[in-house]
Design brief:
The complex is a heterodimer of chains A (444) and B (228). Chain A is α/β, with parallel strands linked by helices. Chain A has 15 helices and 16 strands. In chain A, strands 5-15-14-12-11-8-7-6 form an 8-stranded parallel sheet. The N and C termini of chain A lie far apart (70 Å). The mean pLDDT of chain A is 93. Chain B has 228 residues and is an alpha/beta fold. Chain B is built from 2 helices and 11 strands. In chain B, strands 1-2-3-4-5-6-7-8-9-11-10 form an 11-stranded mixed sheet, covered by helices on one side. Chain B is elongated, with a radius of gyration of 18 Å. The chains are: A alpha/beta (444), B alpha/beta (228). At the A-B interface, helix 4 and helix 6 of A face helix 1 of B.
Chain lengths: 444, 228
């Protein structure tokens, strides 16, 4: 009788999973790092790791759908003559014309206006479609200064000086040549078809002292009317927030590593920066240490998906949040309705991130006229407005359950954490304990 | 003529007054005295008016200018004429770093020297410097012209796109993808026009060399990685 050893089950190495192996093969074949859009896809501690403590006896809840819970927010109360008044504490993040189609920009404006909030320009400058449909429009002043002009600066309701963004703090951008239509080329003063680099730093200031003078110049040009936002990527949130306040910002926009980008290196998106959850408390502490919390408003962005995320960001000390990828999804980006076309591109709905290639089946992240025509900016705007309103209702529901008549009264004491990591980052106790890891250790 | 004394009038009042000119006011000649190195003097002007600033200025003088002709009778700090759209700006002294940065149009003339990053990321502005310019000038310059009668520092035109550079003196070094190019008749003609617009009559266009993009880095290729 012969004896055969049963074969062992094939086992792939954990460190060299299918994705990692495919990326090695792709890099070897093409000689270029992977460029993609979107935000970090790896799992990092996030708002999911926090839970709210609804009211019972020690706190008294408010009646849902009956008792009022306000959500409006005013941004830019420090210096600007005309602060921004929003109905909801959820804004639309800067996304560029060029990365997005003009129809998509128009839809963002329509949706934001219907919901009572603001939208934001991007690297490509201000389009008439977006200005025309946005009740409140924030104009980004970017290192590239593509499409930058004083007329648009004056047409804006606020100015956002972009120093960095969560997906690529310290990095610039690259709009590959295939997305450069005649209109994009004209707006950016560059020939059609060449890669367009967005600088990683502003060309005309070199530090916080210069920045303070730069902000003064922008205020002088716009007669001190408009709030000046300062957007930073989440890396050293305590010090960067403190310096933003010192430089004169009315509003600090803090973008964590789950924040999206139109296109940059995969290795950058996944390996540089702090999770959004880890950014908020140090930034709030900086504002509190300077006596500026609630005087200089804090907008948090990076992976905000629903009202629960919004409520948690507010509870940790933010005044508002900003959404990008979620807004694109609300418009119809990565919708399974286009599944066969996503598969033809070698991907699947929900995973499509090659926005820089200009072949978006949903017609949102493209300049291809045929694809753009698939997207209806009126319907898209309606969808975005619905989504924003739902998110706000969710925040109000949670706030009422915690006993608050304003979403801005949510506080860290309303939260507990499910993991040690999240507890340390959010500076709230592990659920069922009073233990906050790292408390008393400093840790900026 | 309107005469504004910045020892008596605040900068805010001055800029507010200047901005009113775009709304149809009719005061075409302005003189600003006691500029005292203030930052953001005469920024955001959008009217075809003449402004003479007596004395040196700090950062960002004449930033985002449209239409106006502005002369600084002295030196200018960093960022003079940043993001200029049109009009004319003349500095009779020296200019600090990033003069004419990201400028989209108009003419900037610096009669003295300019420091580093002159014309950085320029997008259509014409800049004429009678003296020398510092390092990393015309970095990522997209379009427009930079004319230098003196010498240029290190890394001139690094990562340049379609801007055209003319240098009469020496260039310490050229940046990535920037090369010397043939001076053809059309370039001599362009340079003659620029010099004439700048009011410079004592040099000849034939004394200059032309620099511009080799266009090798316009679309990424791994074989060019060593150039970055």
């Amino acid at each position: 009788m012969s004896y055969h050893n049963p074969p062992t089950t094939p086992r792939k190495p954990a460190s060299f999973d299918d994705y990692t192996m495919s990326e090695i093969r792709r890099a070897a074949q093409t000689g270029i790092y992977d460029i993609r859009g979107g935000g970090a896809k790896r799992r990092v501690p996030h708002f999911d790791d926090l839970l709210f403590l609804g009211a019972s006896i020690s706190r008294y809840p408010l009646e849902g759908y009956r008792e009022r819970c306000t959500s409006n927010v005013t941004l830019g109360t420090r210096f600007a003559k005309k602060p921004i008044e929003l109905k909801i504490p959820i804004t639309i993040a800067g996304m560029s014309f060029g990365a997005l189609s003009a129809h998509a920009k128009e839809a963002l404006g329509r949706g934001a206006s219907l919901a009572g909030t603001s939208t934001t320009t991007g690297d490509g400058g201000m389009t008439p479609e977006e200005r025309g449909q946005s009740q409140t429009l924030v104009y980004q002043y970017l290192p590239s200064r593509y499409g930058m002009n004083p007329d648009d600066l004056r047409k804006a309701d606020a100015i956002e000086v972009v120093v960095g963004q969560g997906a690529k703090p310290g990095g610039g951008g690259m709009l590959l040549g295939q997305k450069i239509s005649d209109r994009v080329a004209q707006m950016r003063n560059l020939p059609k078809g060449i890669d367009q680099r967005s600088a990683c730093r502003h060309p005309d200031w070199t530090g916080p002292d210069d920045l303070e003078i730069k902000i003064h110049e922008l205020r002088e040009i716009t007669d001190w009317q408009k709030p000046i936002y300062l957007k930073i990527g989440g890396t050293r949130p305590y010090y960067d927030t403190a310096l933003a306040v010192k430089a004169g910002a009315d509003v600090v926009v803090l973008d964590g590593m789950q924040g999206g980008t139109a296109a940059t290196q995969e290795v950058f998106i996944e390996n540089v920066g702090l999770p959004t959850l880890a950014c908020i408390r140090p930034a709030v502490q900086a504002l509190q240490d300077l006596g500026m919390h609630r005087k200089v408003q804090l907008i948090v962005s990076g992976g905000i998906r629903n009202g629960g995320d919004v409520a948690k960001a507010l509870a940790l000390g933010a005044d508002a949040v900003s959404i990008g990828i979620a807004a694109l999804a609300a418009l119809g980006d990565n919708d399974p309705a286009w599944e066969s076309e996503y598969q033809a591109l070698g991907t699947t709905a929900g995973a499509y991130d090659d926005w820089h290639e200009g072949r978006d089946p949903a017609g949102i992240t493209t300049q291809n006229p045929e694809l753009m025509a698939r997207f209806d900016p009126v319907k898209g705007g309606r969808r975005l407005a619905n989504f924003l309103k739902v998110m706000n209702l969710e925040v109000q529901t949670i706030a009422r359950a915690c006993g608050h008549n304003s979403v801005h009264n949510l506080e860290p004491e309303d939260l507990v954490a499910l993991t040690v990591e999240a507890a340390a980052m959010a500076r709230v106790p592990i659920a069922g304990t009073t233990w906050i890891p790292g408390q008393g250790q400093g840790g900026l | 003529m309107r005469k504004i004394d910045l020892a008596k009038t605040t900068l805010r009042e001055l800029n507010e007054d200047l901005h009113r000119q775009s709304e149809g006011a009719n005061e075409t000649d302005w003189e600003i005295v006691n500029s005292q190195g203030f930052h953001a003097v005469a920024v955001g002007v959008d009217a075809p008016i003449n402004i003479n600033i007596r004395g040196s200025v700090g950062y960002y003088c004449a930033g985002m200018n449209k239409q106006a002709s502005i002369t600084v009778h002295g030196s200018a700090g960093p960022g003079v004429a940043e993001n200029m759209m049109s009009g004319n700006i003349r500095i009779t002294g020296d200019a600090s770093q990033y003069a004419g940065a990201t400028g989209h149009g108009g003419l900037l003339v610096i009669e003295g020297n300019a420091a580093s990053r002159c014309g950085v990321s320029m997008k259509g502005i014409d800049i004429v410097v009678r003296g020398n310019i510092g390092h990393l000038s015309a970095f990522m310059a997209q379009s427009g012209h930079l004319v230098v009668l003196g010498d240029a520092g290190d890394a001139l035109g690094d990562s340049i796109y379609e801007a055209k550079l003319f240098v009469r003196g020496t260039v310490k070094s050229l940046g990535a993808d920037c090369i010397e190019k043939e001076m053809r008749p059309e370039h001599l003609k362009t340079l003659d026009q620029l010099l004439a617009k700048a009011g410079i009559t004592d040099v000849k266009s034939s004394e200059f060399k032309r620099y511009g993009s080799a266009r090798k880095l316009y679309n990424f290729n791994i074989d060019n990685a060593d150039a970055y």
